Amino acid sequence: MTTTHPAPLPTLFVSHGSPMFALNPGEAGPVLAAFAARVPRPRAVVAVSPHWMTRSPEVLASAQPATVHDFGGFPRELYALDYPAPGAPGVAAEVIALLAGHGVTVQANELAGRDHGTWVPLMHLYPDADVPVIQLSQPATRSPLVLLELGRALAPLREQGILLMGSGSITHNLYEFRAPRDPDDHYASEFTDWMWNTIAAGDLEALLDYRTRAPHAVRAHPTDEHLLPLYFALGAAGAAWTRATRLPGGVTDGVLAMDSFAFGDATA
Q1: Pairing status of strand 133-135 against strand 44-48
Q2: Pairwise CA distance, residues 169 & 233, whole Å
Q3: How far apart are the C-alpha atoms of 50 and 237, rounded to whole Å?
Q4: Which parts pass through the membrane (predicted)?
Q5: How far apart are CA 47 and CA 59, in angstroms?
Q6: Are 257 and 18 in contact (CB under 8 A)?
Q7: Which terminus of the chain is more exposed, N or C, with fewer CB under 10 A?
Q8: CA-to-CA distance for 121 and 249, rounded, in angstroms?
Q9: Which numeric CATH code is attached to 11-263?
Q10: pTM, full prediction
Q11: pLDDT in tens, 144-155
């Protein structure tokens, strides 16, 4: 039998940045740790990340998903990291049932592991790896509305002590990652500020149309799979999404903004 928490948990969009975020917390790591410390401890985390995308939804259903090092060319110590949080087959069943109620067929997957988009930020949120964590695959779509509706379908889990987390990046132009940069070029922070100001204004129509309305949108996201988890987190907060909090993370390497956002945050 599930336990109803006194108040629904907020939902979270986190910028997971480079895999090196696991070793180099920068400004964002302590901010995520402070967020986790001030909200009720979740019964489990359900995460969506663009590093596990499928045509039709799948959910991790194993009792102990592996830590996947789905990247290359980084220091050896990064590959030695493990995030051994348990899985949550019961929560996976709840996710499947809720989505089925919205006409979405979900396949249970007991073989996949947790990708770095999930375990890297969780090393700062719950470093003891003692909160069960599952992943829901990100639909292979370019539509923010699809992710918004996916989040809305799972919104009732907030009242059951589940932290619903979309993990991506508020800016994600890797073409510029190692390119020479003008120190006076602040496009990443300008795009991030627009996104936050639009969230704070409660303008969902503009957020869904960010690609034509936001400054530097196509430059900040040549492809938009890393921004779409934001809409999952926003939708999962239900009508409470306008009570939002900005969790500042600065900008790393000139191109990766590390801000995160909490939706339905009681302290907002």
Answers
A1: parallel
A2: 13
A3: 20
A4: none
A5: 10
A6: no
A7: N
A8: 12
A9: 3.40.830.10
A10: 0.95
A11: 999 999 999 999
